[in-house]
Amino acid sequence: MLLSSTTFNASAREFVMSYDGFYDRLKVVNKGDFQYARVNFYISDIGSNERCAIKSGTILTENNEYPLNYTEQAQLLLPFDKQLDTDKAVIVIEPQNPMHDCQLKLQIEANELDGLVFSKQSLFTVHTELETLLNDLSGFFVSKLMWFLLPEQKGVVVTFNKPMQFTEQNVHCEQQVCYFAVADDWQADNHKLAEITDVVKITPWISK
């Protein structure tokens, strides 16, 4: 799910983002009791939505410089660091292709699932965590005073590493992506549906 995006100057070889926006969102995750749900940060091309490969990255403060960790999928692996927030750190990224028109994507997802059995019960757990994190990130004003503006989470979208099909009701698949409409009675169903090693990630299924 795309929560927000920032467009950068495609003509520049480097672009800069303030660390405080990342810190505020990481703080929400760290305050909650989330075993699987995370907010992850990616750099992608605006036109194609494909990853903007990163050539180099740095975290800068007035007095210090730190290497930026990232993946081949252009995911930023940022530390949760109060001092970086206090020091007004900025993140400087140089894309491999300076002509890419890139954007920052903040995505709620679960992609660290080692040890989990892929069942309706586990999908109910992950669904609940993702929904809670989505509400927490929406902030007090929206969730408490303007609740009707919140997106409705119908279930979860599971991306697999191969095409999948399921016979269960409330599940439909499009090649490697399957949509699970999570129901309350799934909480007690621990029947194994697939191998957890086939799962790439789980994201919220937003119906509006």
Layout of helices and strands:
Layout: E1 15-18, H1 19-31, E2 38-45, E3 54-60, E4 65-67, E5 69-70, E6 75-77, H2 82-86, E7 90-95, E8 102-109, E9 118-119, H3 120-145, E10 153-160, E11 171-174, E12 177-180, E13 192-194, E14 199-206
Which key phrases capture this entry?
single chain; four-stranded antiparallel β-sheet; disordered N terminus
Outline of the structure:
The protein has helices at 19-31, 82-86, 120-145, and strands at residues 15-18, 38-45, 54-60, 65-67, 69-70, 75-77, 90-95, 102-109, 118-119, 153-160, 171-174, 177-180, 192-194, 199-206.
Description:
The structure is a single chain. The chain has 2 domains: 15-109, no CATH class; 118-206, no CATH class. Helix content is 21%, strand content 34%. The chain is built from 3 helices and 14 strands. The strands form 4 sheets. It has a 4-stranded antiparallel beta sheet with strand order 1-7-3-4. Strands 5-6-2-8 form a 4-stranded antiparallel beta sheet. The protein has a 4-stranded antiparallel beta sheet with strand order 11-12-10-14. A hairpin with a 2-residue loop joins strand 11 and strand 12 (177-180). The longest helix is centred in the middle third of the chain and has 26 residues, at 120-145. It is globular.
Which class of secondary structure composition applies to the elements? alpha+beta
Could you name the ranges where pLDDT drops below 50 across 5 or more consecutive residues? 1-12, 140-148
Approximate strand percentage: 25-35%
Number of domains: 2
